[in-house]
Amino acid sequence: MLRRPKSGDSEADLLRDQEQFLASGVPPAVTVVRRADKRRGEPGIGDGESPDTDEIRDVVTIADLPDEIPSLTPTPSKKSRFKANRVRFVDADPEAELDRCDTHVTAVLSKIVERDTSTVPVSIPPFTSAAFPRVFHRSEVEDKGKGPGPGTRGKKSIFAQKIAAQKAKERSLTSYGNSEAHCPSLGAQGSDNLPGVSMMTESPHLGSEVHGGKEMSRLVSGQGLSQQDGSSEAQKIHEENQAKLRSLPQSEVLEMQKTLLTQLDPRLVDFVRSQKSQGPSKVTSAPAQSEQPGDKTASETLDPLEEDMEHDGPDSLPPPPITVQDLPFQPKKEWLHMNKLEPEKLEWMRDQPAPRKRSTRKAMQARFDFDGALIPPTEDLPTHLGLHHHGDEPELAGYSLQELFLLCRSQVVQQRSLALTTLAHIIAKARAGDFACSVRGSVLSTLLDAGLVFLLRFALDDSVEGVMAAAVHALRSLLVSPEDEESLDSTFSWYLGMSAFPLLPFSQEEEDEEDVDLEDTPKETAKKKEEEKPDHDVAQADIVKGLLKMKLLPRLRYILEVVRPPPRTVLHVLEILIRIARHSPASATQVLECPRLMETVMSHFLPCSWTPHDPPTCLHGLPVPAAMKLLRVLAGAGRHACARLLNNLGGRERLSRFVAVEPCELPLAPGEALRIATEALRLWAVATGYGQACDLYRDLYPILVKALQSVPRAWPPTDPLWPLELQRAQALVTLLTHVTHTAGCHQELQAALASSEESECPPPPVVDWSHVTGLQRPLLASLKGCIKTLGDPSQRESSVSLLASLLLYLGTYYSQLHLQNSFRPVECLQELEALASDVLLPLLSHQAVRGLIDRLRSCSALCNPLSCCPSTEAVASLPRFGSSGGRPALSLASSSSPLPFFTALCYLLEAVTRIHKGIVHKFSSLLLSDLMSGYLRACCEASPTLTPSSAWLLRHEHHLLYLLLKLAHRLMPASPEVAKQASLYHQAALSLLPRLLPGSEHMAHDLFSSIIFNSDFMPEGRCGGPEAADLSDLQLKEGCCPSQPPLGPLLRDACAHLPSLRGCYLTHLAYMEPAVLRSRDLHLGRTPYVYSCFLSEASGPALPADWPFLPLVSLYERVGVPGGGDVRVESLPPASLESVTHCLQWLLLLESWRESSLAAVLPAAKLARLSCLFLCSSDLFLERPVQRLTWALLRTLCHPRRVAALDLAVPPPGLASFHDLYSALLSQFEAVSFGDPLFGCFILLPLQRRFSATMRLAVFGEHVGLLRSLGVQLQQLPVPLEAFTSPPEDSLPLLQLYFRSLVTGALRRSWCPVLYVVALVHLNSFIFSQEPVSQEVEAARQSLLRKTYYLTDEVLKNHLLLFKLPSQQDELGFQMYDCLPPTRARRLESVLGMGKGEGAHQGCDSVP
Length: 1408
What we know:
By secondary structure, the protein is mostly helical. Helix content is 50%, strand content 1%. The protein is flat and about 140 Å long. The chain starts with 10 loop residues before the first helix and ends with a helix.
């Protein structure tokens, strides 16, 4: 066994071991491989040497060992960019290849000029006796320049600055140190000592500078050449360059500049530009001189970016370095480390440059101050305001939204609080419309898209109280609209003003509709799907719902209960809770069910006893009006929520505490006492609106009567408390109004409870009619007192507001009086006559009331849609009632609005005239007023848009219009003058009906029952309307087909069946019965049956705009088969024929005498609805009454003005496209038409030339078989024939189908005369047209002409060749030439290649 070498073996031992190993013959552990040198190619090839003479190298190889050392860090292998493009051959000579490819090396090496060092001084070190150089302290060296020079890049340490200053001092002491040339080793420091360095001005040429009045190059200095020739050589090169530039055109110079910029290294370009920006070159020999600006030349515009930087003004130039004199204070020697100036660190103390006065239209980033106001970019504000502490654009004052968002996430508490407060101010001003004309786009939408909701929600979780308060302030600015709350408070005492729409986004309805078709999906699954949505998706669709999903309510409870914030934050939290409660009943329920939230509000902010503080530093333990308002809004969510507040949370005790005491006796500030007393009365009014808390009325009756005695009190206009006193008086009257409603229901409920018919009848209230009979006299006295103050202009506005509440109470009293068992008719009639003569008639004739009528139209939301249009900052996920730019001065919701007064007056008049019909005629002056008639006409012509900001205003105006129409209904039999305007009132009712919003279904039902189908409101039926229709048909009598009956008898018959028409439509509206019952309870004041003060979501009107087509559409939806031909008449529901007949009769009446009532229905929608008649059954359209009425409707629909407005490209409501409906009509016509001309006219109408060719292609392509039965005569066409023939057809596939149907005999004149003429017209125009077209179309044109000439059917051939023009009165439907015209003959000869005149003779010979 061989011995292994040891560490202590000598060289002799190693040689001995090697000899033993070789002698043993054992194979080695490694293999020696001789590998050739890669750089020398294969051994012995091309190098003249044999392998034996090459240098032999021993290479040790180990198994699995890579050839190259792996990299320590995994990086991609480096590849040469030139290796792929380089081609080498095996036998190529490297030296020859080098000589061939690298020719530039030889050129460069052959022109080497050695540097002239004859004049370079030799620096000899100074002699010194010290062994080592002396060490200097930095305090001994005087600074030559403070701060970096203009060309210095980067920052330099104090040590480097001292070393540079020491070297400069040593050079200045040497004999040759006065030389003008600077040492290259100084680098950028050489410019620090130049005496004349200043900011650059305009240069005469790019890349040049002036020294001593001589233009020189910045880049070429000549350094290194001889002293005599260096500068002259550099100047010569520079002059050659400038001459070359001058000789080139400007375009070529710019092109070369772009080429160089794309080819050169960007770092090199930056270096060249830095030489220009730094001023005189650091290697030039002349110092900087004062430069004179010269005229611009072509070379100056080479780099527009640089020019903008240089010539933007003096503000764009770098400021001079800071000096000791620029400091706001002078450093003292005893200050540590303050004896030396550090310019880099003191730059932040320099004043900011003034903003640039730019006259540009380019948009700039919006910046805001701490109050949220927009700062103009040109405004120069002082820096002590703190508006310049940002990195971007430091010279501009204010903070951008991005910077504020960044500060909201800062670690500094003050920065977070200040940023959130600034955002709150910005949001408030944006919602007020302050940025509408200054900022492009929506500020609020931008903030929400950036994640404002989540930012505020995260900020609420901050542990610092100041940040929480700022976040609450910002959230309140986002959610709460003070204008909305003010408007809702002012309309609380209006007619049905206690009810309001939920503030839900309109889009939510559309999202929910996506799951309506999923019948198998239960509500639990939909609720679970809603819970699984991410917070971002929920907040994007509905901000309030998203905040509730993010657990906002528990956090607000924690802030109120644990943090106990200052009064301002408490008020903001309560306002946020009010806004959440207004969102929807579900949101209000979540507020009620949040653990300890309402208990905290009741115990801390609505205590029954408290100790006053002046001024209050903390609201905990003090009554807060906002807390009482929160209870009122929550009570409006439903009767169960109200009962829970009153009975479980102590609301009843709070009502007694704040109502039983006069506001002046409460230990609160006068304004606060009035506010909380008013809110308590409003909460009580909401409770009595459900029939609850009526026992408190009996207990507090003396206090209420005492408060009534001071209602007509005169308030001085300058008293700041008079608006609050007025609101309290209105709330008191509203409370008594609802108590009267509840007392009026006692008798009905008592009778229902005694009978066993209604098991779900609510219990009767604790108050009956005897408890409220004593209220009428004091309130009537208050009404008379208010009328007396109308003459005082200073008190007129307050008097009118209080008059509305008093009139509503009297209307409620008399509407319930005649239903009671204690009703005495004789005494009541005498009382009403006295009321009319003493109160109502003087009120109607008062000058102030006339002024209110004059103001009614200008304040109308119907007549002025722009007054309630949404603002530019409106957000779909956060609806609001406010309009753009706040509420206009003349608005329905303003304090001077006449709407509540006239609504209450008409409500009282309607109640009075229902009891005493003998005094009805005395009130006709209100309707006969020219101003009122003009207002009604303007409402008929209006076209309002339904938005969240307009829905609540339109609802109140709809109440006024409804009551005016009810008054007109009372006056029609009693006043002939009013009867003369019956058409106006009927038109107003028809216009109001499709505009009514959810919650007004009772009004719609009442209009249907009393006015819409009332023959008294359609005087045309009695005053010659049918006769006028007959006269209009006389001029068409000769051309009319016998199947088209005259219009007069149809109208006369429809007027005779108006009661049946009413019953038909009420039957089809039976699906609205639950909504009608709920609305009836609300409008009639049946308070025990009212479930909630929240109305249904105002996503659209209660009735569709095309409600007159409802019987026809509903029948189609039940039995209509789109495929056609499968439904028999026996399968129709009972009375279907009668229902369809009544529907067609009503449509005929509207189209003839009330055309504007269907203006909202597009002509295409009308055609689509009437087409359902043919899809309902196989032979319903063949019934005689249906035929007669449909022909009449088709004639009205095809009036030239209406046909011109027909657009089939727009999909009708309820259809994906009109083409789908037309395809179903074609299939039905093929199956069951039996050649009916009426059905054929509906098929022909969409085939007019101006409509899409797809429907014509469907007829001649897929349904060509129906041409055999489409036998509508030319005289039966409801539209002129020219509508089908002009302009010429340009669809080549359709023309080919025309020709094929004619040739194959599918289209014949005896079968389908209309389309036969249409095909002839378009084919004749096409084959003989000589307009320039594409080669493909020309080939098809010639092909059709050849085929036409060689037709064997001579009749068809003559019709195609000799066609002249269409003629609807002609027997054939068109006129023909006797012979081919010369132009057609030449065209035929050119296509067929016949001799001259042969085509004309052929055409003449072939004429039959």
